Each structure stands twice: as C-alpha cells, then as structure tokens.
Amino acid sequence: MKKILLSLLFIPLLVMGCIQKKTSANPNSIQIIASETIKNVDHSKWDALLKKHVSANGNVNYKGFLKDKTALEAYLDVLEANVPSKSWSRNATLAYWINVYNAFTVKLIIDNYPVKSIKEISNPWGKKFFALGGQKYSLEQVEHEILRKMGEPRIHFAINCASFSCPNLLNEAYTEANLSKQLAQVAKSFINDKTKNTITKSKIEVSEIFNWFAGDFKTKGSLIDFLNQYSSVKIDAKAKTSYKDYNWSLNE
Fold it and tell me: CA-CA distance, 95 to 170, in Å (whole number)?
C-alpha cells in the first residue's frame, strides 16, 4: 500500500520535472504554446455558413443567413473574444480582419433585410455597430485603418461590400494556412471576371476599385503592371484605361 501511495505521489513530480526541464531548456516554451492557442482562431463556423449560403459565383443567400442568425452570432462571438495581438503572424492577422469585415457586413445586411442595396442602410460603412475586444468598430475602420495599412492590395478582392460590382464573396473562410493561395485565387478571379472588368491588349475598362484605391495597386509599378500579374490577357503598358460604373445592387 505504501509503495502504491509513493508511486502516486511520484507521478505528478515527474510531470512537474518534465515541465521544469522543458521550461529551463526553453524559457519561452510556455508562452509559445499560449500564443499558438490564441493565434489559431477557429473560423470553421464561418466557413460552414459560407459554404451553405454562398454560391460558387458569389451570390449570397441572405434569407438563409437570416435563418442561421444564431450560428452567425456564435461566430461573431469567437471574433469578439480573440482580437489579434502582436504575437500573431501577418497571415493570421490578415485572415482575421478579412473575415471580420465580411461576417459583419453580412450581419449588417440581415439586420436590415430586406434591402435592395447596402446604400439603403444609414451610414453602413461609418457606423460603429460592432465590438471586438471591448472596442467599437466600423467597417471603414477595418478596411482603411487596419487592412489597407498592412500593405496587401489584394485585400480589395477579398472583402465584400454586399454589392454586385464588388469582388465575389468567397464561399470559404480565410485562414492563416491558406491565405496566400486564397488571395491569389480571388485576385485572378476578380480581374478576369468579365462582369467586373473588360480587358483587351490595348484597352481596359476596369472596376472603380482600381480608381478609388489606385495608390494601393501602384506600390511596385503601374496599375497595368499589377493587373498583368493575374490577367489572362497580356495588357500593353500604354493601354487606354477607363473605369466601369459601380452597381450597388445587393449581391443575392
């Protein structure tokens, strides 16, 4: 009996010894584990909703989202409780804020549904209608003060303003692991979408997005240099450029 008791007492000591040994070998090991836990926010709830209610070509079933409002709000609670910290990777942070923008845009629409356009809603981008980590945010804050400042122009093809002329809402959640592939995918898809842009070798008529945020696309050359990274048609450097009218009709 004494041997059994001694053994039971010895087991936790061995565990503690392992922790202490690991900690002494790597003083930051416990912190690294904690950071990994925080960094890997679970976007699976959002992923499931997108797969269920967004078609392959970006049409959004807002009536379906409305029926699944409880599930959407459960995901928004995950976002509220897991605001990025400095320990997060760049891709984890970008994925988080892209998903924030898209998920709260859907919430804005279903909270005001039915509407024919996001512009029917009072101050849709400037209103601080959601909180993350106890701080109030608006959609324009997320776009201009966070995402654009991260120096990744392809975010403009990832965030969706619930309108026909916007880049299609991807029917999967953005994640740290897949972000690079996803951004390349949506850039190529949007630029070559003939309902959004008309591109020939000598003339391009492109989305107003390339006009509104021109500086974001010219950090490493001209707009045409940027487009040629993804365009299926090779555009001449001196091609004539014009911009399409923007259709703000709801993307459903």
Answer: 13
CB atoms within 10 A of CB 80: 16
Does residue 190 form part of some domain? no
Give me 223's structure tokens.
């707009």
Token readout for 166 is 């916007």
CA distances from 186 to 158, 159, 182 (A): 6, 10, 6
The domain tally of the chain equals 1
Determine the Cα–Cα distance for residues 82 and 42; give it in Å rounded to an integer: 10
The helix or strand, by DSSP H or E, that contains position 130, with its residue range, turns out to be strand 130-132
CB count in 10 Å sphere of residue 142? 22
Please give the average per-residue pLDDT across 132-160, as a whole number: 98
Question: What is the pTM for the complete model shown?
Answer: 0.85
Does 52 reside within a domain? yes
Domain of residue 138 covers: 38-185
117: left (phi over 0), alpha (psi -120 to 50) or beta: beta
Two structure tokens written together for 125:
């981008």
Mean pLDDT of 99-128: 98
Inside any domain, residue 160: yes
H or E segment and range at residue 205: strand 203-206
Q: State how far the alpha carbon of 144 is from the alpha carbons of 82, 112, 158, 185, 201, in Å.
A: 21, 24, 14, 22, 32
User: Is residue 172 in a domain?
Assistant: yes
Q: Which residues contact 203 (CB under 8 A, 6 or more apart)?
A: 239, 240, 241, 242
